[in-house]
Amino acid sequence: MLTLVGLVLIAIAAPMLLPDPLAQPDILQGVNQPPGAKHWFGTDQLSRDVLSRVVTGARISLTIAFLAVAVSVTLGAMVGLVAGYWGGWVDAVLMRIVDGALAIPRLFVLLLVVAAWESLPLLVFILLLGTTGWFGTSRLIRGEVLRLKQEPYVRAAEALGAHRIRIVLRHLLPNTAGPLLVAATLGVGNVVLLEAGLSFLGVGVRPPTPTWGGMILDSQEILFVAPWTSIFPGLAIVITVLAVNLFGDALREAVDPRHA
Amino acid sequence: MSDHRGLLEVVDLVKHFRTTGLFRTTASPVRAVDGVSFTIAQGETLGLVGESGCGKSTVGRTILRLEEPTGGSVQFEGHDIFSLTPSELRTLRRRMQIVFQDPYGSLNPRMRVGRAVAEGIEIHRLAPRAEIPERVGSLLAEVGLDPDAAERYPHEFSGGQRQRIGIARALAVEPVFLVCDEPVSSLDVSVQAQVVNLLAELQRARGLSLLFIAHDLAIVRQLAQRTLVMYLGRVVETAPTESLLATPRHPYTQALISAAPEPDPTVTRSRIVLGGEPPSPSAPPSGCAFHPRCFHPKKDTRCQRERPELRQVGDSAAACHHAE
Question: Which CATH fold would you assign to the domain A2-7+52-259?
Answer without folding.
Answer: MetI-like fold (1.10.3720)
